[in-house]
Design brief:
With 372 residues, this protein is an alpha+beta fold. It has two domains: 188 residues, Aminopeptidase, CATH 3.40.630.30; 166 residues, Aminopeptidase (3-Layer(aba) Sandwich). The protein is built from eleven helices and 15 strands. The chain has an eight-stranded mixed beta sheet. A hairpin with a 7-residue loop joins strand 1 and strand 2.
Length: 372
């Protein structure tokens, strides 16, 4: 049995009142991880991490994984559906908000349209609320189901970046120091310390980003690739000033996270431009897809960085915004959230209206490197 597949949780169970069969909704039991892995092997969703070993790696790497965070539907002892809670803290208005990530949500095809998914999701929402989580966020293939149960699609925008033949005139003032782009693997410990500092400064000022401790950083580095990722650092004068993480998703090449110090806009732009350069030995290429095809464009997550936008123009990178409706969010405890943020509730304001006021979709940043 692989490391991490031990006894980590307790068992809670309840029999569904509306099913005459022996269907039960409960938390995962110790010893059922292999059965859950087998169930999830049938989960094939475009745009998501689809490495068949992803769940096993998550069990080993994610410090928040516990059996009592995984809810399953079992019939005659066989797992037929699941939903998982992944505890996180999101930055909102300078506060760390206890949040339940919800996913993966999956029901075996031959057991759908029986209300099993609804029961699972309702049970997980109750558990998150009882455990003090004030928000829930999900990136699911069944958004309509979650919308029926109280989640709201948080529509934002992403950008498709492409290299052009034209570069804008260089800025009047030159930095005077050459920018070097290196892999994180070079001087890893030193570079990662600098990256963490950049992440704290850059992501810390953006609503919706995940607060990472060292354990979550380690998990992110092990799990963000699909199955591998490129992690680039831009250095000026030997000091790291910007970084970006890249992996290949079904939609194409994607930047899953980036960041920079205040003086690193041009360095980050140069780094992003370099991502679009084909290479002879490309770990993301395959026999069916060439490096030129893979790097013909890259998808950028939502960001509000004027300095980077200007820097990309100077590098000859065009940007085309596209709608992004992949994320859903729900306020689980409006009064606790308002009290934590020290924000007054308006008269007759419901959960969704409150969230739109404090966390507008166009200002919401959730890095794909933190997705589940």
């Amino acid at each position: 049995m692989p490391a991490g597949f031990g006894n980590r949780g307790s068992r809670l169970s309840a029999v569904l009142p509306y099913t005459p069969s022996a269907m039960e909704i409960r938390t995962l039991e110790s010893g059922e991880l292999e059965a859950l892995q087998q169930l999830l092997s049938g989960w094939d969703v475009p745009g998501y991490w689809r490495d068949p070993e992803h769940f096993r790696r998550q069990v080993d790497a994610d410090p928040t994984f516990r059996e009592h965070n995984v809810w399953v539907a079992a019939e005659r002892g066989e797992l037929v559906a699941c939903a998982q809670i992944q505890p996180r803290r999101l930055r909102i208005l300078g506060h760390g908000i206890p949040t339940g990530g919800l996913g993966p949500i999956f029901t075996r095809p031959d057991h759908r349209r029986r209300g099993i998914g609804i029961s699972l999701i309702e049970r997980t929402a109750t558990a998150m609320r009882e455990r003090g989580m004030e928000l829930s966020i999900s990136f699911t293939s069944t958004p309509r189901l979650l919308e029926r149960l109280g989640w709201t699609t948080w529509r934002g925008q992403r950008c498709i970046l492409r290299a052009t033949d034209k570069k804008a005139p260089a800025p009047a003032r030159s930095e005077g120091v050459e920018i070097e782009i290196v892999s994180l693997e070079l001087q890893r410990d030193r570079a990662l310390s600098a990256v963490k500092a950049i992440h704290t400064a850059y992501s810390g000022s953006r609503n919706g980003t995940v607060i990472r401790d060292d354990a979550l950083w380690d998990a992110s580095l092990k799990l963000a690739g699909n199955p591998c990722e490129e992690f680039w650092v831009a250095r000026r004068g030997g000091l790291a000033v910007a970084y970006a993480r890249v992996t290949l998703l079904d939609e194409g090449l994607a930047i899953t996270e980036l960041g920079r110090f205040e003086d690193g806009a041009s360095a980050l732009a140069k780094l992003v431009a370099g991502v679009l350069g084909p290479r002879g030995s490309d770990p993301l290429a395959s026999s069916s897809v060439s490096s030129e095809e893979i790097r013909s464009f890259v998808i950028m997550p939502a960001f509000d960085d004027i300095g980077l936008t200007v820097g990309l123009e100077h590098e000859g990178i065009s940007s085309h915004p596209v709608d992004d409706d992949s994320g859903l969010i729900r306020c689980l405890n409006i009064r606790a959230l308002a009290a934590r943020l020290d924000v007054e509730l308006l008269e007759d304001e419901n959960e969704t209206a409150f969230l739109r006021r404090i966390l507008p979709p166009d200002g919401f940043v959730f890095w794909p490197a933190d997705r589940f």
